[in-house]
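Archive entry. Fields below.
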Amino acid sequence: AQKVTQAQTEISVVEKEDVTLDCVYETRDTTYYLFWYKQPPSGELVFLIRRNSFDEQNEISGRYSWNFQKSTSSFNFTITASQVVDSAVYFCALSEWQKSSGDKLTFGTGTRLAVRP
Amino acid sequence: DADVTQTPRNRITKTGKRIMLECSQTKGHDRMYWYRQDPGLGLRLIYYSFDVKDINKGEISDGYSVSRQAQAKFSLSLESAIPNQTALYFCATSSRDSLGRNTEAFFGQGTRLTVV
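PREDICTED_STRUCTURE:
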């Protein structure tokens, strides 16, 4: 079973629209961490946020905001007033500890966001 | 200079050849990872290492091996390359927080490998 599900394969919006990228995760760990990364067309992976499972406060950073809902195992990412430079593939990731494998970082399949001028 | 350096950046090799991808880091992190990225499949974990003597298989380790030569170096080998190992490979490092859990991962720029 997928540990991290990003059901939206591709999203296309017009500049200045708001857009939400969904992330649903699955874990039995009681203390886990969630991440978002951005991969622009140049290919590098850029860290955006790390959130632990005990901190359910939403976070805002400029035009970016994250909504963590433990009850639905979701950690969604919203870009407000999108810009062309936001065009990228966005990955959600889960860090969970398992007795057999230790602390493992697992990524979703990514959502490709295209922002049109 | 980049904190996490991968060499080579691009490589074309023939089926059956042995190839090594190298990764070095200057961040002083204990934890290092190898992922491969394929279109539509995201990043899949090949191997990871928590320190020089601790190496673990990821979800797709078949056909690959690794060596952690030092804290700063983690190499990935394809013993006998096959075409479906054509992919973009990323090395990453992370540290531990006060609870011993992963902090954010820092990635190299990737190695594009083509097996013909």
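CURATOR_NOTE: The CA atoms of residues 14 and 116 of chain B lie 5 Å apart.
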